[in-house]
Fold each of these.
Amino acid sequence: VSQVIINVSDVGADARSAFVHQLSYASDAIEGIEKSRSEIVITVSDDAVDAVRERAQALLGKLVAETREIPTTVWFESAPDADYPAEDVFPEMLARDWVVEFTPGLIGVGGPFQSLVDRFEAGMMRWAGEHDAVEYTYPDLVSIESLKRVHYLEGFPAHVVFTTRLRKNLDAIHEFASTIAHDDSCLSDTYLAQPSHTLKTAVCLHVYDHFQDRTIDLDRPLYITTKGRCKRDESVNMRTAERLLDFLMREFVFIGREDWVLKQRMDLMERAREIVEQLGLRARIVSAGDPFYSEDDALKDTEQTRDPQKYELLAYLPATDSEIAIGSFNFHGEFLAQTFNIHSQTGEPVYTGCVGFGMERCIYAFVSQVGIQGALDALGRA
Ligand SMILES: [Zn+2]
């Protein structure tokens, strides 16, 4: 393998992150992408070096020209003076069986890692209890129709993991059954049906579908919480517990008047800040672009509101001197309520928002900052 190095020192942060994201799907020849502030190092098979360099440079040029760099507003920042572990804690977590890695992006967790997840979950369920939140458990599969309505498939098609089944044809099913043990070529559309569902990419999607065509009493707005496993294919960017193909997410969803929805979002931003401060972590809450649904005419109204559509909770990863988003605080304006025809008794507009936390990332960022022993101490274990 060889390396292709692309200089990005003059490239804005939004274009740079779009570049790393899109590059990961650009070619099968790309085996890895390492990023620093000034350059992107692409590991690539020898025979594809020139083609990948050319494609990467063209992609970067296009993104620099197209990307509207959105200035970031820092809502909260905590940077305590601490001695952080210099090494990535992931190998040690693997060695202790806190984490098992099947392939990059597919992990299982247990032991102290699981205990930390449970503890964080319990804290979030206390928040939910204070708001009389209603908890729902939804399926892992979401219909392609629903995803199309929020324009997810146009915005992030490469993230999506499609599901399929065998075609309803007894001869083909028998043929498949007698072939699969020795020949994978039957995993093709000769035997597999056209997908009608995907695995869900966010756990809040079912909530809007659930309340589709319903009338909401705005004096009794909806505060819902749900948890589930999301799937996002991040290609060669999947590594450690930082970017996973399959991860656990807890979300809170609000459906009501604009000021009420914004207040609930702000309340959870305050809660997140309290936790960061209590634990003495290094993290920031900043405004961000990139809502989970893509640009649409209906969105233009909300773009003009004074409140950013999205804030992210970014945690510091000392080993790589980088940050990961471990939570997001989203305001969708009227877009999703209109899309799913959720309306009010009085005809007043209905607004929605959601707040989500990626559980494995939260715990990984925590252990990355406090170290293995710090995590055990936090659990009260020797
Ligand atoms: Zn959401």
Amino acid sequence: MNLTNKYGYRRSIVRAIEKDPYTKGASDFSVTELLQPSRQWALKKQYQEKLTEDVDDRLWALFGTGVHRVLEEGADPRDLVEKRFFMKLANHTISGQIDLLEHDTLDLCDFKTSSVWAFMAGREAKDEWTAQLNMQLELLRFNGLDAKKLFIIGVLRDHMESKASSDKKYPQMKIVEREIEMWPREKTIDFILSRIESHAKALKELPRCKASEAWAGRRCARYCIVNTYCDQYQGSKKTGLLEGETTT
Ligand code: SF4
């Protein structure tokens, strides 16, 4: 991955981003990768050496790392914090890092540094949050552990108190929790197997992203690192549409 610095951020910020640790360990797929659209995942593999990302686009990820690190340092020593687990399924090694498993409640929590809109009252939990936490739960179970409840904990980086007092749908607190539905184990295993199969197929024949995966083009334009190499997106820029996709 090559890092650019189009706004000329100060050296110390660039260095912090260069050192921002992420590893999926010795695994074939991480939980994060399984959640990615198969087209995006396959293009990343194909163009790994050529991909570039700008410092500016990495800043919120760096912010997230900072929040995780502080929480890790302040954690109860009996809790499981920031630990990567592995499991073997269909001859593939899957890994995933859990943020927090509280020893007394057995709450499995994942922290998201997020903008407020994802946590406005009435908004459904994102499908990918549900899939992510259920896959993490399965990793725990494969390793002889368990959880009783699943939570996404949003740390809202753009929270404004003035809006909280005038809009009841606006999150009233800067850190909000969303309980996540726990799937039956078979559903989680089926989900993981179907994602592995979809990714493996994508290496042979690139599928198209559905509109729901491409967030109707928003992900392509702003959040997809392979967009330069994606002819689906490049083609859609000419028409103004992510044409031919279903919304399922
Ligand atoms: S640019 Fe859009 S269509 Fe292409 S892989 Fe990324 S998300 Fe999918």
